[in-house]
Amino acid sequence: MYYSEDLVEEIRSRNDIVDIINSYVSLKKKGNTYTACCPFHNEKTPSFHVSREKQLYHCFGCGAAGTVYTFLQQYENYTFPESVEFLANRAGIQLPQREMTLQERKEADYNSALKEINKAAAGYFYYALRQKNGEAAMKYLTDRGLSQETIHKFGLGYSNMYRDDLYQYLKQKGYDDKLLIDSGLVRFDERQGVNDVFWNRVMFPIMDLNGKVIGFGGRVLGDGLPKYVNSQETKIYEKRRHLYGFHIARRSRREGFILCEGYMDVISMHQAGFDNACASLGTAFTIQQAMLLKRYTDKVYLAYDSDGAGVSAAQKAIPILREVGISARVINMQPYKDPDEFIKALGAEAFEERIQQAESSIMFQVRVAAGKFNQQDPESRTQFQQEIAKIVAVLQEPLERDNYIEAIANQYFMDKKKLTDLVNRYGKYITEQKQYIEATQEEKPQDIRRQERLEQRKQQPQRLLLTWLVNYPKELFPQIRGRIGPEDFVDEFCQLLAKQLFEQYENLGDVQPAKIINQFEDVEEQTKVASVLQTTLKLEPSPEDNSVVITEIVRKVKEESIQYQLAHLQDYSRLQEIIKQKSEIPTWNISLTCG
After folding, report:
1. Mean pLDDT in residue range 540-545
2. In the 8-state DSSP scheme, what is residue 235?
3. CATH number at residue 254
4. Is 558 a residue whose pLDDT tops 50?
5. Do 218 and 275 lie in a common domain?
6. Which of 106, 232, 473, 552 is 20 to 30 A from 135 in CA distance terms?
7. What is the C-alpha to C-alpha distance for residues 133 and 492, in angstroms, rounded to an integer?
């Protein structure tokens, strides 16, 4: 761990989990907890709960759970140390300096050097654009309607026509060949040696969320091929995880984001006032990019090219956006090809109108399907209706599904009942297929599945008892003292939690579940711990019934402990003691007065 346990706990205690999470999602108070639709999966009914008392969150839908640290790790993709540093800064706590390990220092220096090289390259390209050799590149940008302010804002540049121009510049700054090759800016050829990847191109720096240069896109001057060259992936740059222009777009005050295809589309839209525009980076739109957008919005407007390739790209992006819970609408730019052409021809006001008139993703998909089939031919029309049913069947909300069926039936002159039956049939098929895929993916040999089920049954009473102890520590700990201890939790994971809970109660007279989770840096471990400690118990109507339930749980935990001790007994002098403990179990009665 980077920082001491006490410091991590102090930082956590100074950052209320409700305040932090409420800055990302809108929480509503419900009894003693706060609820919202989960930010980690798509849902209509809120199953995401945040407890101010426990300083924990838990989603009963997808299982996401943990402390404020876990939330930042899952939502912002921070490492544990990064989440500590973020919250320390928020609380005004000065973090102590610490010595890195040799390996950590090596990795940090390597990544830092890659960023320095990219920054130096961006500066060199920016400078070259303003020199005599860059006149053609500058003319290209100004002919495309870009102002000097916009060119500066996006750090646009030019790579000289000489094949080793940048390489020689970076070598003079002291960088060795291996690091330069690793940066993706130069490449090695056995016959020609080391050469620049980018030459005689207009350069578009690609930046991360913090505005740091991590890669480049280069457009050729003239008619050469390939038209665009993009940086290879490096330790600091993964195309599927970044969006061009997003470091600016994420700070926009406009509603949602506009997703388009190319660098120039993004830049011209920003210049026209649409500073919420961004684009994927030389690859098809990815689930990682969708999740990045979801961190900031639940609405995206697609402004892909209006040609066949753009329509196809939009159709591929829609289900990806839907999967993460983003509502997509499609902007119609006809008769123009892309946002850049549209804005140049008709202006920003007309584009704003097209945004307001943007078509829902479902109706867009239906319209595209309609263009592929002959509506006058019975066979073709049947295929069209089947295609529509598949499109609408993905909608889970019955009211939303019914509204689309009605709108489509009216627009394309169909029988609503027949279309409804067809949609429901496809919906059932989709559900069955999904269940089958999940089942086959998780299929394991029968003996392994049997063993896993047995282990889960053994763990259940232990996990339940831990949950009861967290929810009612002052009522239960005094009653089980001398009867059950941490050693009675035979499952390794449960025993680890039990030790910490028992220790906390003995020292504090209470339990602090969030403090326990702080000791785990791995998000999966934090989620696993939080799923036990954050669970809210559903009490029975009467105290007597609750007492029966908790008594039975305590007895089962002790019985399992005794069975384990007998199976692993080596000191037979303890046999009589264990038998005596077993005989006392039926007499135990744990009372719980709340109900």
Report:
1. 68
2. T
3. 3.40.1360.10
4. yes
5. no
6. 232
7. 68
Do 360 and 381 share a domain, yes or no? no
Q: Is residue 98 part of a domain?
A: no
Which amino acid does the sequence have at 443? E
Sheet holding 157-159, edge to edge: 157-159, 201-207, 213-220, 228-230
Which residues form the domain of 43? 5-91
Cis bond leading into 96, ω under 30°? no
Most confident of 277-291, 346-360, 508-522: 346-360
Give 154-186 as a DSSP string: TT-EEE-SSTTHHHHHHHHTT--HHHHHHTTSE
What's the structural domain count of the chain?
A: 5
Is residue 374 classed as helix, strand or coil in its secondary structure?
coil
Model pLDDT for residues 303-350, shown as the tens digit of each residue = 999 898 899 999 999 999 988 888 899 999 999 999 999 999 999 999
DSSP string, 64-78: -EE-HHHHHHHHS--
In a domain, 97, yes or no: no
Residue 228 DSSP SS3: strand
Q: Say if 111 falls within a structural domain.
A: yes
Backbone angles phi, psi at 224, to 5 degrees: -65, 165
pLDDT tens digits, 249-283: 988 989 999 999 989 999 999 999 999 999 988 67
**Integer angstrom CA distances of residue 518 from 92, 141, 363, 464, 465:** 19, 52, 47, 21, 21
The CATH number linked to 232 is 3.90.980.10
Residues 199 and 263 in one domain: no
**CA–CA distance, 151 with 167 (Å, rounded to integer):** 24
- Which of the listed ranges 39-53, 373-387, 527-541 does the model predict with the highest average pLDDT? 373-387
68/114 same-domain check = no
Non-local CB neighbours of 554 within 8 Å, separated by 6+ positions: 465, 480, 483, 484, 588, 590
What pLDDT score was predicted for residue 115? 93
CA distances from 186 to 22, 170, 237, 484 (A): 45, 10, 15, 66
What does the alpha-carbon distance between residue 102 and residue 109 come to, in Å, rounded to a whole number? 10
Give the C-alpha distances (Å, rounded to integers) separating 410 from 205, 237, 368, 371.
48, 48, 17, 17
Q: Are residues 283 and 407 in the same domain?
A: no
Task: Report the predicted TM-score, pTM, of the whole model to 2 decimal places.
Answer: 0.63
In terms of domains, do 221 and 122 share one?
A: yes
**Residues 157 and 122: beta-carbon distance below 8 Å:** yes
**What are the φ and ψ backbone dihedral angles of 206, each rounded to 5 degrees?**
-105, 130
**Cα–Cα distance between 279 and 245 in angstroms, integer?**
7
CA distance linking residue 125 with residue 138, whole number of Å? 12
Per residue in 133-154, pLDDT tens? 999 999 999 999 999 999 999 9
Report the distance separating Cα 406 and Cα 398, nearest Å.
12
What mean pLDDT, rounded, does the chain reach? 86
DSSP state of 44: S
Identify the CATH number of the domain in which residue 25 sits.
3.90.580.10
pLDDT at position 435: 56
Question: HEC profile for 505-537?
Answer: HHHHCCCCHHHHHCCCCCHHHHHHHHHHHCCCC
My answer on whether 14 and 74 are in the same domain is yes
**Which of residues 365, 398, 433 is at a domain's end?**
365
